[in-house]
Amino acid sequence: MSKLIILSIIYYLVLTFFSYSKDLDEIKCVWDNKNNIPCLEIVGQISNSSQFSKKGINKIVISRKQIQESGASDLIDILKSYPDINITQSGPKGQQASMFMRGTGSNHTLVMINGIPINDQSTTQGAHDFGLDFIQTIQQIEIYPGSSATQFGTNAIGGAINIILTGDYENSINFASDQDTNYELSGNKTIIFDNSSLNLKIGSVKHETISARGDPSNEKDKLINYSSNINYENYLNFDTRFFNNIYLRQTKTEYDNSISNQSGYKGDNKMGAYQIGLEKLDKLSKSKYILYYNFYDREYDERGVKDTYESEVVGIKYDLSKIIRDNLSFGFGSEYKYDWGYFDNNGSYEATTKGHSDNISIFANLGWNFNDNLNLSFFSRSDKHKHTGNSMTHKFNLAKEVFGSNFGIAYMQGLRNPTLYELFGTDNFGYSGNKNLSPEKSNTLELYADLKLNNYLSSSVRGFRSNIKNNIEYINNKYQNDSDDIDLNQSGINVDISFKNKNYFIKTFSSFLSSKKEDGSDQTRRPEKNYGVKISKNISNELIGNFNFHLLYNHYGKHFDIDSINFNTVEMDSTDLIDLKIVKSFNNSEYYLKITNLLKEKYQRPHGYNQDGRIIKLGFKY
Question: Which alpha helices (H) appear in 18-142, and where do they start and end?
């Protein structure tokens, strides 16, 4: 309660001390150059969608402006305040991190770059490590809560995250440092030719604050990250665009094996993505061909014992979206991908995997506006996996607009095929892969309302209930599909309320979640209650001029976890975290002060792993 009182005092002082604020609606996107180049809206083509079926897709867009306003360092800083998402990280920045989306498992979220999946098949369960992603080269983030197999394919049982790297035409240099002399550095340069453009991005992060385990003041676990991104596009003619994207990332991290063994453990994680394609756009249709290649190369040094993990995927994809009539659209496409991977784990625990798989899919959608106020969307996808065979998934959405507000109902299905380790892996405790596994499947029913109450006040309410069948479990030294005919069940409701007037913008958000095991007990690391508030204010003061104020308060509720020493189930207390950022613009530069964990909350998430305390960061953008 004391934290809420302090938060209220901070907000009250800000509102009362400064007498005049600009209307947020007056803040326009302005290009500071002589060519009058218009501002651009980044609209990525969603796989298996068309003009009128897009209304049936739940999509949250986090723009570059929002990313910069947050002062975030990594992807976790951005995603942690969204109600469908729970994140745990095994220590400070750079350590392994898992996401639980809508109460599903950490391997039930699909991660993409520019719409292409990048989940690492050299991991045991094909889960993406969110602790390695930093925002220096990221232009936009899209969140797709709920089962999204019909749009994106396997792994998206809980939802999907799409990282967009293209569309940044603003030349800039960014630098920030904190009280521990850590730094964040990034640069962006775009060269524009007659019919083409070349965009170059680089980024680097160094972080060293606390020990992941034991006493936080013990040896500090260090992170160093490098990232680069090259985007090239060429308009061959008025309606045809050729594009080429390259992304490379390396993250070196020190980590702790246990409370007593905290030194001599290092990880070197390399990742790359290459995309080349052709896009054709006219008034009634849009088609896209893309060839892609992703790789992971990870090495861990445990006091001289080396573990190596490698995986690669190559694929080709075609997407077509077409308007048939003024009220009818359809989409069609196909994708083929080939995965192969290898890992060799040594030391006291020995495990190996080597294998490959492929998958071919065909998908289609239909969007129909019955009238100006009623929309029907239908999606279908067929996946043929080398080891699990054919799987069909479907999605249905009906939306009705009433006085500017939108009400809807959706039914959607999810799919996760087994990983290479689940199919082919072995270890020194007797585990052997199971090539007879079936895919996990999910069903979700969702009701929603997007309410526009007046010109200043809006709200969104979404309630869902889902189950997961054929869940893959580790039983008797082997992964097997659960055969007791009992599903894993999740349900929840998310509510956010936004108020915006000429003085400030404020948004409250809350999430109520129930995620149950087969015996009816709560799943670990999924709190039942999360809530918070975001505040943005543009302020004009006679003494220091114009500046921007941003505040984020996030309550992460009580939840169950596994004790890191005796492996018993323990209850973890809630946390109340406050982040504050103040930005001052001067000529072509921005200077800012960012305070993370303002009240210096001490907490562990998950159990046994320390999280950063208060960090005071100063930075600028030119």
Answer: 64-70, 75-79
DSSP codes, 23-43: -GGG------SSS-PPP----
Phi, psi of 234 (to 5 degrees): -140, 120
> What does each C-alpha distance from 379 to 109, 148, 198, 263 come to in angstroms?
20, 10, 36, 51
Residue 613 in tokens: 């305390």
Q: What is the pLDDT of residues 552-584, one digit of tens each?
A: 999 999 999 999 989 999 999 999 999 999 999
* Residue of 620, 622, 617 whose CA lies nearest to 591: 620
DSSP 124: S
CA distance 493 to 514: 9
Given a cut of 80, whether residue 35 has pLDDT beyond it is no
Q: How far apart are CA 129 and CA 106, in angstroms?
A: 9
Structure tokens at 554: 């996030």
> Tokens at residue 288, please?
């896209």
Coil vs helix vs strand at 619:
strand
Nearest to 60 by CA among 169, 140, 119: 140
pTM exceeding 0.70: yes
Q: Minimal CA–CA distance to 564: which of 90, 146, 42, 108?
A: 90
Tell me the domains of the chain and their CATH numbers.
Answer: 2-621 (2.40.170.20)
Go through 329-355 and write b for each residue having 16 or more CB atoms within 10 A of its CB, e for each that does not: bbbbbebebebbbbbebeeeeebebeb
